[in-house]
Amino acid sequence: xxxxxxxxxxxxxxxxxxxxxxxxxxxxxxxxxxxxxxxxxxxxxxxxxxxxxxxxxxxxxxxxxxxxxxxxxxxxxxxxxxxxxxxxxxxxxxxxxxxxxxxxxxxxxxxxxxxxxxxxxxxxxxxxxxxxxxxxxxxxxxxxxxxxxxxxxxxxxxxxxxxxxxxxxxxxxxxx
Length: 176
Description:
Blueprint: H1 5-11, H2 49-58, H3 60-69, H4 76-92, H5 97-107, H6 123-131, H7 134-153, H8 155-164
Helix pairs in contact: 1-5, 2-7, 4-7
């Protein structure tokens, strides 16, 4: 996971609210564990495309964690390039106000989605974030588009994965 540490911090730690219904309150609680979303009333492969896309977008932090953490995740090999590009963009733009704030929040397991800023955020900080959001927005939207396309293509395999895996990841099976 160290290859994608900043991505995990930015998309899991800073979106920790996505994991709370699953019983996780911090990134460290997710170590060597899969985050298995609650079963849907219909198998993923039987959802219509719009419904499936919306679900994957909503649950993207959960899927990103599983893709990064579980080497057996369906379609993982096809998503690694997108994750590497996003990781590189985070590293290249770490001086950007938004990216720095997201990574900082993620390390502290504090919720921060720059594309959905909280109303409670001070106006000055919101303005700074909005003025500097472009690198984050472009990188995130590209990653979201690429990952969701592969996730949708792998819906049947993900259904099988969800039905057959447990929450623990066998540390012997994880690539070093």
